[in-house]
Amino acid sequence: ALEVRAAADSASPGPCHLLYVPASAGDSLEALAARVQGQGVLVVADVAGAALRGEVAISFVVADGKLKFEISQQALAAAGLRASSHLLRLGILADDGAAGSVPRDNR
Question: Scanning 21, 43, 51, 64, which has its CA 20 to 30 A from the CA of 27?
Fold first, then answer.
């Protein structure tokens, strides 16, 4: 069963499997992601660059007039998760090897 709940504040997102953080969350993105770190929660944000910076596992971005997603394997691993090779081929991969590195666009 799927249950959708709105978190009242960044202090208590509650137990969940997936945490979606909208762009309107602003500065609370890092606080929300930190609250569920290490709990097996997939954090998805509507904040371009958030996955490339390792703040969340997946972030949405508009590129070339299309909605795409960035994916951080490092953030996935930190949450105890991993993505299929099919999902990784579709996303814009963060190069988690070096800070400040340029991401690869797999398409």
Answer: 64
